[in-house]
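From: lab user (bench 3)
To: helpdesk
Subject: output format question, protein + pantoate

Hello, I'm new to running complex predictions and I'm not sure whether the block I got back is the full result or only part of it. Here's what I submitted:
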Amino acid sequence: MQTITTVAALSQAVSEAKRQNKTIGLVPTMGALHEGHLSLITRARKENDVVIVSVFVNPIQFNNKEDLEKYPRTVEADCRLLETAGADVAFVPAVEEMYPEPVTDVYHFGPIEEVMEGPRRPGHFSGVAVVVRRLFDLTQPNRAYFGEKDYQQIAVIRSLLQQTGYPIELVPCPIVRASDGLALSSRNRRLSPAARAMAPAIYETLCQAVEMSETDDVEDVKQFVVDNLASYHLVNPQPDGLQFEPEYFEVVDATTLQPVQKWKGENGVVGCIAVWLDGVRLIDMVRFR
Ligand code: PAF
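Helpdesk reply: Thanks, we reran it on our side. This is the complete output you should expect:
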């Protein structure tokens, strides 16, 4: 595996692959790699001749300074993992390499970004779009792989591809969960042992919501999810006042991401949640139909 830190060296590797008519699979990451990322790389490995994995904590997609500072950075361990996972190139640029000039580009995604993460993380999706477009420009991939845990991000990238007309196949990949159900996330590393033990209740609650959706209205199920998590610590007393603070749980059309009132829809229906626990913001999603 080649570890590349400069745009010039990456362009050279990409030109060489293109010259040999090789297909390129891109897996954009912010590092602190886990099994979820590895599943994207395994899929990219099967479907492409060359697999490029970027490891870059993108400062312009963080609207919260503390979150950026605390974001886990484990570059050496990441590169070791990438080597074993079969990546061909690890692209690990410094911030100045990715952004030699101040970033002025702003992207808009209309109704897709007006719900859930959008209003709560102003500028986040535009920051994601800037870095992803730059990675697309640099690597010219045939396919790009993204995890479904960041469900809204996938809709944003789909819209970015429509806006740019880039002929890149977007490959959404299913969430990978720990054996207790918690969706794998780099942020899980920041949970205390007590919070980590409590966190699987998020997915348990989502599974209960799916069962309830057979008989109950959308609004009742939404209320259940929020109440169940918000009152978890009352039913299961926790050390140090640990408690879930649900930020939102939305039931939305799987493609347009607009809130729905009925379980049936031609695009399918998903539930997306953001919950604070132990100072860490966790997100997850589940399919209803
Ligand atoms: O999902 C992520 O890890 C990031 O948002 C991405 C796509 C790598 C862009 O920085």
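A quick orientation on your result: The CA atoms of residues 253 and 269 lie 5 Å apart. Let us know if anything else is unclear.
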